[in-house]
Task: inverse folding
C-alpha cells in the first residue's frame, strides 16, 4: 500500500482565510488537512470495516455493502479541528503545546452514507446504555501511537437524529484520500479529532478508546497544568474534548492589511467571516461586530444559510451543525476612525443562546477549544484624497507649493 507523506512529516495545512469564506459549502480542495501520520492509498474495492465487540455477531462490511445494502443519508456539518485558532491563544494569552493553526482549520461540507445506527441495528447489539463506540484506523502508524483511534457514546451513535454517518461521500463525490477515502466516521457537533479517517474497525465496548489521541491529547486541561510533566500526571483526570464551543472568526480583511478608502464602495469597509454553533445547539442566529473593544456591538448580516432558507420547515435540523457565513459593512465614518490601535472583534450567538464571552476565554496547555472573539488588528487606512490634498499644500524650499 502506498503511503503519502510520513509519520515524521504528516500533511497539515489550512487554506487562506479569504478563500475559506467564498462558499457556504467548502470545496473539497479547499478544506483543511490534519494528520498524525501518512496518507494511506487504500483500494476501495477490497477495503472492509470490521464491526466487533458487544455485538451479536462480528462482521466485515465492504464499501459496496455500505453503499447498496443500507439507506443513504446526507448531513451538512462543519468539521473543525480541536486546535483551530490555536495561534491566537498562543499569541494573545500564553504559549501552548501544539502545531500552529490560525483560523482556517475548519470547513463546512455535505457528508453522505448510511447511518451508523442502521448498521448497528441490523447487526444487533448485546448491550445498551452506558457504552462506547470506538473508531479505529490501523492502516498506518501515527506520531504517538501504532494506530489512530477515537470514541463517542453508544447513545449518540444509536440516535438517528444525531446523524452519525459512515461517510462514503463528501460534497456529492467519493471521499478523497486526504479526507479519508474510502470511509470515515462523521459525527456532527463533535470535534474533528473524533472523525476517524480511513476507518477499518468499529468496536462496541464498555469504556472509551484507549488510543493516545483519546486519552493523552485533545483534552482541555486546567490552567495550572502548564508543562508536559504536569500534563502526564493529569491526563487521566480530564474528560476528552467532544463538543466544540460557539465560535466566530474574521476572515477578510486580515490582520495587518492596508485599506485604501478610495477603493471602498461608499467608504464602507466590508468585513466577512464564519461563525459556528456550540455542539448540537445550532444554527447560528446572530453575529455582531465591535470596533471599541466590546463597549458596543453592531449586528452583522448572515449571508448563508440564507434567511429565507432558515424560515423553511425543518431548517433548524438541516443547519444545526453548519457554519454561518456573515458579512458586515462598517459605515464610512467608523472606517475612517480605524488606526493601528483599533481591534475589530466578532462574536456569535447560536439558537440555544450560547454566545462568545470574555469570561470564557481561558488558556489550556494544548491550546484546544479556543473561542475568543474573532479579531483583526493593525490595519492601515489610507485616504488617497487626503494625501493628495496634503501634498498640494506642502511648501518646498522658499515657500513654493509642490
Result:
Amino acid at each position: 500500500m502506498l503511503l503519502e507523506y510520513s509519520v515524521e512529516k504528516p500533511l497539515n495545512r489550512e487554506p487562506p482565510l479569504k478563500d475559506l469564506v467564498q462558499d457556504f459549502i467548502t470545496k473539497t480542495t479547499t478544506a483543511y488537512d490534519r494528520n498524525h501520520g501518512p496518507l494511506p492509498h487504500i483500494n476501495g474495492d477490497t477495503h472492509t470495516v470490521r464491526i466487533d465487540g458487544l455485538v451479536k455477531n462480528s462482521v466485515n462490511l465492504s464499501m459496496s455493502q455500505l453503499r447498496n445494502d443500507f439507506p443513504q443519508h446526507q448531513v451538512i456539518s462543519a468539521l473543525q479541528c480541536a486546535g483551530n485558532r490555536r495561534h491566537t491563544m498562543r499569541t494573545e494569552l500564553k504559549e501552548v503545546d501544539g502545531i500552529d493553526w490560525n483560523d482556517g482549520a475548519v470547513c463546512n461540507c455535505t457528508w453522505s452514507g448510511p447511518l451508523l445506527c442502521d448498521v448497528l441495528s441490523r447487526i444487533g447489539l448485546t448491550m445498551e446504555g452506558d457504552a462506547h463506540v470506538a473508531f479505529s484506523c490501523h492502516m498506518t502508524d501515527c506520531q504517538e501511537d501504532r494506530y489512530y483511534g477515537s470514541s463517542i457514546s453508544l447513545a449518540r451513535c444509536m440516535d438517528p437524529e444525531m446523524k452519525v454517518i459512515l461517510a462514503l461521500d463528501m460534497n456529492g463525490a467519493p471521499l478523497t484520500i486526504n479526507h479519508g477515502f474510502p470511509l470515515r466516521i462523521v459525527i456532527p457537533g463533535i470535534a474533528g479529532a473524533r472523525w476517524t479517517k480511513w476507518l477499518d474497525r468499529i468496536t462496541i465496548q464498555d469504556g472509551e478508546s484507549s488510543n493516545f489521541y483519546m486519552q493523552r491529547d485533545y483534552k482541555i486541561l486546567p490552567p495550572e497544568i502548564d508543562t508536559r510533566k504536569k500534563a502526564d500526571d493529569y491526563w487521566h483526570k480530564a474528560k476528552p474534548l467532544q463538543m466544540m464551543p460557539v465560535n466566530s472568526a474574521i476572515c477578510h480583511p486580515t490582520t495587518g492589511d492596508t485599506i485604501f478608502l478610495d477603493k471602498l464602495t461608499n467608504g464602507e469597509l466590508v468585513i466577512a467571516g464564519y461563525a459556528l454553533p456550540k455542539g448540537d445547539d445550532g444554527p447560528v442566529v446572530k453575529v455582531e461586530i465591535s470596533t471599541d473593544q466590546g463597549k458596543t456591538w453592531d449586528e452583522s448580516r448572515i449571508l448563508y444559510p440564507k434567511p429565507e432558507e432558515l424560515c423553511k420547515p425543518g431548517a433548524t435540523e438541516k443547519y444545526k451543525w453548519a457554519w454561518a457565513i456573515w458579512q458586515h459593512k462598517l459605515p464610512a465614518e467608523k472606517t475612517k476612525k480605524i488606526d493601528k490601535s483599533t481591534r475589530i472583534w466578532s462574536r456569535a450567538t447560536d439558537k440555544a443562546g450560547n454566545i462568545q464571552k470574555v469570561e470564557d476565554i481561558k488558556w489550556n496547555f494544548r491550546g484546544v477549544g479556543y473561542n475568543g472573539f474573532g479579531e483583526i488588528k493593525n490595519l492601515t487606512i489610507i485616504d488617497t484624497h487626503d494625501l493628495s490634498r496634503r501634498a498640494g499644500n506642502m511648501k518646498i524650499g522658499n515657500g513654493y507649493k509642490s
About this structure: Residues 384-393 form the longest helix (10 residues). The chain has a mean pLDDT of 95.
